[in-house]
TrEMBL record:
Residues 1-24 are annotated as: Disordered. Its main location: cytoplasm. PANTHER family: WD REPEAT-CONTAINING PROTEIN RUP1. GO terms for cellular component: cytosol; nucleus. It is found in: Cytoplasm, Cytosol; Nucleus. GO terms for biological process: flower development; regulation of protein-containing complex assembly; response to UV-B. This is Uncharacterized protein. It comes from the Eukaryota.
C-alpha cells in the first residue's frame, strides 16, 4: 500500500513551485450566458445548484441541488448566438425558458451521474435521505432505487461500465452490479477506521480498475474494485476534509479540500506532484471538475468566483465572477458546482458553474493566438 510521507510532499511541491516561473496563460475566458433563478432573494438559497454533469455526448447538461429537481439543458441552446469576437455581449436567461425539461425528486440532491451504456437515457442521483435513484429521461420516471446507507446522506455517486458506487455520511462506499435488477452489494468499503464521511467517489476512466474516495478524515484513498479489502494507496496531505476527487489523466488524480487548496497526485506512488492555491474554501463544497483533454482544472470559491488552474502551474491562470455579485453584498453567496465539457477541441472549451443563489454561469474559453 502506498502512503505519501509529508517530507516527500514538501519536496515535490517545492519542485512544482519552481516550475511556476515558466507559467504562461494560454487561455482567455468569457462569461457568455447567465441563467438566473426566478426565486425572490429570500428564497434563492432554496434553488442552490450544487451538482452539474454533461452527458456522454456533451450535448446535454443536467443539474441538481436543493430544489429537488433534475433540470436538463441543451448546451447549444445556452450558447445560441455566442460571438467570440464580441467581448461585451452577455446572454441573460432564466431557468423557466432555458430548461428543456425537469424531473421532480423526493429529496434534495447531492450528486448526479449519467449512467454509462444507456445512450444518455438514464441518470442516477444520490440524495440527502441516503437513497440512490435512477431515472429514465425519456419517460421521466424512476426505474431503480437503492436505500442501503441507513438514511444517512449520500454525498456522491459514480459508475464504471458495470459497477455503481455511492459514498455516504455513514462512512462507507457501497458498490453494486448495474447489470442486475436487484440492489445487492458487490462490496462495502469503509476507508476510515473512525467511519468518517465519504464525501466523493470516482472510478478511474482510464481503465486501471481503481476507484478513488475522498473522506472527512483529511485523506483520499484508491481501491482496486476487484479486491477491496485494503486500499491500494492512501493520499495524505490535506489539512481538512477532502471534498472531491477527480482523475485528470493516466496515473494522475486531483483532490480538493476545505483547507483551501487542490492537490495533484501520482496514483502509482501516491506522491504529491503539485498544490494549487488561490480560491477560498474553508467550509463549503465549491465544486471540482477537470478537462482531461486540455489539462485544465476548474473549481468554485466562497468568494463567489470561478477559478481555473493549469495542471502545470500552482497559481490560477484565470478567475471570474458575475458582474455586480462580488463584494460585501454577496458574502453569503458562493460557487458550489462546476463542470467542464469533455470535448476534444484544441483551442476552445466550455465550463459551467452553479451558484448558491440558483444561477448558472456558462464560460467559453479560447486559446490565445
Amino acid at each position: 500500500m502506498n502512503i505519501t510521507h509529508p517530507q516527500q510532499q514538501e519536496q515535490e511541491v517545492e519542485e512544482g513551485e519552481k516550475e511556476d516561473e515558466k507559467a504562461n496563460n494560454e487561455w482567455e475566458f468569457k462569461l457568455s450566458t447567465v441563467i438566473s433563478s426566478q426565486s425572490s432573494s429570500s428564497r434563492a438559497a432554496s434553488d442552490t445548484v450544487g451538482v452539474l454533469e454533461f452527458d456522454p455526448s456533451d450535448r446535454l447538461l443536467a443539474t441538481g441541488g436543493i430544489a429537488r429537481k433534475i433540470r436538463i439543458y441543451n448546451i447549444s441552446s445556452l450558447l445560441l448566438g455566442y460571438d467570440a469576437q464580441d467581448t461585451t455581449s452577455l446572454r441573460q436567461l432564466d431557468h423557466l425558458t432555458a430548461c428543456e425539461y425537469y424531473i421532480c425528486t423526493p429529496a434534495k440532491l447531492s450528486s448526479i451521474r449519467w449512467k454509462p451504456n444507456t445512450s444518455g437515457s438514464v441518470i442516477g442521483s444520490g440524495d440527502y435521505d441516503g437513497v440512490v435513484t435512477e431515472y429514465n429521461l425519456e419517460k421521466r420516471v424512476p426505474v431503480f432505487e437503492r436505500d442501503e446507507h441507513g438514511g444517512r446522506r449520500i454525498w456522491s455517486v459514480d459508475y464504471s461500465h458495470w459497477v455503481g458506487a455511492s459514498g455516504s455520511d455513514d462512512g462507507t462506499t457501497q458498490l453494486w452490479d448495474t447489470r442486475c435488477s436487484g440492489d445487492e452489494c458487490v462490496a462495502v468499503v469503509q476507508p476510515s477506521v473512525g467511519r468518517s464521511s465519504v464525501c466523493c467517489v470516482e472510478f478511474d476512466p482510464f481503465g486501471s480498475g481503481l476507484i478513488a474516495m475522498g473522506c472527512a478524515d483529511r485523506n483520499a484513498y484508491t481501491y482496486d474494485i476487484r479486491k477491496t479489502d485494503n486500499p491500494v494507496s492512501v493520499f495524505v496531505g490535506h489539512e481538512k476534509t477532502v471534498s472531491y476527487v477527480r482523475f485528470l489523466g493516466e496515473h494522475m488524480m486531483v483532490t480538493a479540500g476545505t483547507d483551501g487548496c487542490l492537490k495533484l497526485w501520482n496514483t502509482v506512488n501516491a506522491h504529491s506532484m503539485r498544490t494549487f492555491k488561490g480560491h477560498v474554501n474553508n467550509r463549503s463544497f465549491v465544486g471540482l471538475s477537470v478537462w482531461r483533454h486540455g489539462g485544465l482544472i476548474g473549481c468554485g470559491s466562497e468568494s463567489n468566483e470561478v477559478f481555473v488552474y493549469d495542471k502545470r502551474w500552482s497559481e490560477p491562470i484565470w478567475l471570474g465572477g458575475l458582474e455586480g455579485t462580488l463584494g460585501p453584498e454577496s458574502e453569503d453567496k458562493f460557487v458550489c458546482g462546476v463542470c467542464w465539457r469533455q470535448v476534444m477541441e484544441v483551442d476552445e472549451c466550455t465550463l459551467v458553474a452553479g451558484g448558491s443563489d440558483g444561477a448558472l454561469q456558462v464560460y467559453v474559453g479560447k486559446k490565445k493566438a
